Amino acid sequence: WLHYSMEFEAVICYLCAKEQRTLGENIIKSHKDDAFLLLGFSNWKKARVIQHSPEIFDALSSCHEPEPVSAQLSIKKEKDQQIARTCFLKIFNSAKYLAHQGLAIHGHDGSSEDLKQLLSLQVDDVPELKRWLHQKTTWTSPLIQIEILSLLSNSLLCELASEIRLRVYFAATVDGTQDSSGKEQQSTCLRSVDNVVHEDFIGFYEMTMTTGAAIAQMILDVLIWKQLPIANLRSQTYNGTANMAGSYHGVQALITEKQSLAIFVHCGAHCSNLVLKSVRESSWTIQEALLWVHELECLFNQSTKYRSMFVQIASGESFATLKPLCPTRKAVRAVLNQYPAVLESLEEMSQATSDSAAKACGLLERFQKGKTVLGLLMSLALMEPMEQLTTSLQGREQMIEAVTIVKKTLSAMRSEDKFKKNFQEALRLINEHDIEEISLPQKRCVPRQLDDGNSDPTFHRTEFYAAIDQLITELTDRFQQSGLQVFQDKSDMLATGIVNERSELESQSLAVQLAMF
């Protein structure tokens, strides 16, 4: 094992030099005689060949010893954990992406899930993910997906609650509806203000009972869960049902008992819907016309044969789909703009032998009456400002101002010129499409002011004016709320500087009272 080096003119250890190439500095650190490795040994008077021999063989044997089993298992465990962590982060981020985009995660079966399809696109970038998805435990079950979404939801809600606490004061908006399974769900939103108005959706909460006490307790539980003190609640907004707006056992009354400063305001969108409903019921001409529109749209939706007929006939015009929803300005305008196609398709459908032929025949008779055309035009004139009000109420400000503008618009419509314009348009459509002329209803006992021998325009003009008056009255009654008046007074006090005009009010006293409040 000793070799003589002509370069150093000394002997070196062959085994040490060989192992240095493979073990590097480990072999150097393992023995004490560096002379046999680095510089060679030439001091023959102090030869230590016999002493070096057992040292080098012991060092080489220790370098070739395998790692303990426990250490090998620990390394394997750490590697498996790293792979599992990498794959789970891919699963978590993929579920987060689908949730952020509002895409469905589940599919009809396990292989068609959007989550697994998205993960399969990433296997080329992450080789470990491909092996992970083919093993038994993949952490992609529906239970794991729901848990991931719950973690994301709770994190977002905690962040929203933290922001609301920084803004101090807030308002609550709650409304109930049924989901596809028939379970009652209460949607909860919180409104707060800093430099701008913020409306944050908190979530849906399933209710086994819809009593005022149950819903009020749900609201209190949500505030406790989000660590929002009820002392900072300044307003509450619900619909006008008895369990929500009741004076004694409604939600607003029970919440007011806990916090007297939480002023109740009836939901503006719900008020506008109630106003439109009352107007439809106040005029028989309008109510009848909207009823036939609804039946026509139901026929369009239920009968594939009639739908194909209508689409084929109306294809040359600006086609608009008929949808069986609540009567709106768009639904009425879709019928009026496609009136020739409606008449032709109903006539063709009435000659068929299907069950829908009788219904189409009855609708054709109704749409061939001039009174139906006039009713649609009258309803369109009244719905237009009301739908603009509904759109404005979906915003975050200027509710009272929007109602005032709509009332002025409706008052301006109560004129001879406005009704004459609608009546002339009805006559044009009647002459253009060869429709039965407008006639008075059959003789019956009616109030004298409605049946005194007037002509057709006078009778329907009186009905049109009555509908406008009913609309203005309902707007006044629905939006003249005590809660809104309180907020209006506060707004005037803060924005108009009316406080400065009162000499008996002192700023120092107000500051002390504000601190006490």
Automatic annotation (TrEMBL):
Pfam families for this protein: DUF4371
Domain DUF4371, chain residue ranges per copy: 91-250
Coiled coil residues, start to end: none
InterPro entries: DUF4371, RNaseH-like_sf
PANTHER family the record matches: PTHR45749, ZINC FINGER MYM-TYPE PROTEIN 1-LIKE-RELATED (PTHR45749:SF28)
Name under which the protein is recorded: DUF4371 domain-containing protein
Organism annotation: Latimeria chalumnae
Lineage, broadest ranks: Eukaryota, Metazoa, Chordata, Craniata, Vertebrata
